[in-house]
Amino acid sequence: MALFTTDSIERVRDAVDMVELVGSKTDLRRVGSRLTGLCPFHDERTPSFSVDPERKLYHCFGCGVGGDAIRFVQETEALDFPDAVESLADRYGVRLEREEDDPAAERRRRRRERLHALLERAAGFYTTYLWESREAERARAYLAGRGLSEQITREFRVGYTPSAWDRMVVAAQQSGFTPEELVAAGLAQRGRGGGLYDRFRGRIMFPLADARGRVLGFGARAMADGRGPKYLNTSENELYHKGRQLFGIDLARGHAAKTGRIVVVEGYTDVLALHQAGIRESVAIMGTALTQEQLAELGRSAPLVVLALDADRSGQEAMLRAARAAEDRGTQLRVAELVDGKDPADAVTSGGVAAFEKHLERAMSVVEFQVRRVLADADLDTPAGRDRALEEARKLIGAVPERSATRDALVGEVADRLDLPADYVTAAPAVSERESARPDAPPRLLSASPGEAAFAAERAFLVMCLASGELGREYLGRLSDGHLSLPATRRAREHLLAHFDDPLAELSEDDPALAALVTGVAVEGQEQPEATEPALQLDFLQLEQRRIEREIRRAETESDLALVRRLAGAKQDVRREMDTVMGRTA
Ligand SMILES: [Zn+2]
User: Fold this and answer.
1) Cα of 64 to ligand 1 centre, how many Å?
2) DSSP assignments along 172-216, one per residue
3) Which residue of 78, 178, 193, 486 is 20 to 30 Å from 42, comparing CA positions?
4) The whole model's pTM is what?
5) What is the CA(445)–ligand 1 centre distance, in A?
6) For 58-80, how does the pLDDT look when each residue is reduced to its tens digit (9 = 90+)?
7) How far apart are the CA of 76 and the centre of ligand 1, in A?
8) Which among 126-140, 313-327, 542-556 has the top mean pLDDT?
């Protein structure tokens, strides 16, 4: 399927009656030039959802969603871009034209479509086999034994694959798929003799889908002993990338947007159990360490990410790295400690959903979590053991902002547990400054969330620029990547510079985070009065100051003292300049 021409997409946008379209999902009331109503994307009692009927845009000041009519249909009806365009074209009577584009791209798209179709068929085949074959009886018993209903199992399209060598290979080839396609989709392998056989045999199959619900691969659990590893996944291929995958994201995403939270667990059946218990904003990372890509996807789904993972040592290291990356993106990361080493599935089954929910609500910041681990592992019987724990705890607490309730609470806890005076805990750690500033030192406390503050300041400046005509354009042009701490605001700056007069033009549907940010900025920019030059100047200088501060921190990390001194001088200059501007405006 080729893409629609830009022209026909524009005609669809023109034809849409935004009030009628959005009005079918939520009641709208006119307030000035806009219409407002309760947001269809999150639960709320007072309307923070706003529609601009002229420019045909929507934006929620509560949860931050926003976009045009096509985006609205994508989100409310869970359609991908082409399907949303088609549905709108149908609804408003627009004839769509398809683009004839280059044959190589067309071939690639065809191939991907075939692989997707093959994987869908495979998922269907496995599901039927699970529910209808005798061979799968043990698998059905296993799933039931884990307390999982047929309904939830079917919703996740769990299946079973025959133990014979080539059932999938034969069935797929009969349906017209080639051996090469079977291998490319990760369903078949070539033996030493060149023969083709099924990669998965005698296993419970969990389809791994992307956010849109398209199957990309499978996670497979062995039912018989001694037949390879207990868990076997699709290996990396042109569609499936392990580090990108979040099991259940297609079903969890909508709920995560509503609740503002996404829960990350380890196993497939944990996800099924949580969804069945009503905690539908749950996904799994399937035993791997959390990757940046997964974290980005999680951050796009909800502002709060709660990790309910096995808290072993390696897991902790991964968590620390994740925490640091999350902070950079303005996402909050919390850790829910698993009670008595029970996995989430056991916990909801035995303790009930209310107890598990409480447990999630009590999730702590990564630093708190780590300090508690140190205390739990400490050898309290010997002075040397207590000193070691004290040392480690001090290092961790040293990264928590001073004069904060969290810090006080942690200090109290450590002092209590080690039976030492509190000032032993607050005393400067016996490590050198240099060591504590190393990149692998613990992250700052997440609750302070410097990432969020930076994001708010950067976003506010973009709004101000957009509201301020030519002067705003000029100031936007002065911003460099260095002024913006987040990839999202950097992309937004780039987009706004290129489309200053029509910020919503050419927003790619592949980047929903950018689309939401730009739409919000555009809507607010239109409602804000033009800023005066001193106001723009002052806000720009504040970003400049933050930029220099970030560089200073980096230089300190690298122990480049000469650079630190130079940057400190530059920061002074900026402060003086700010004073001058303020003097002028006062
Ligand atoms: Zn909302």
Assistant:
1) 6
2) HHHTT--HHHHHHTTSEEE-TTS-EEES--SEEEEEEE-TT--EE
3) 486
4) 0.60
5) 28
6) 998 888 888 999 999 988 877 78
7) 12
8) 126-140
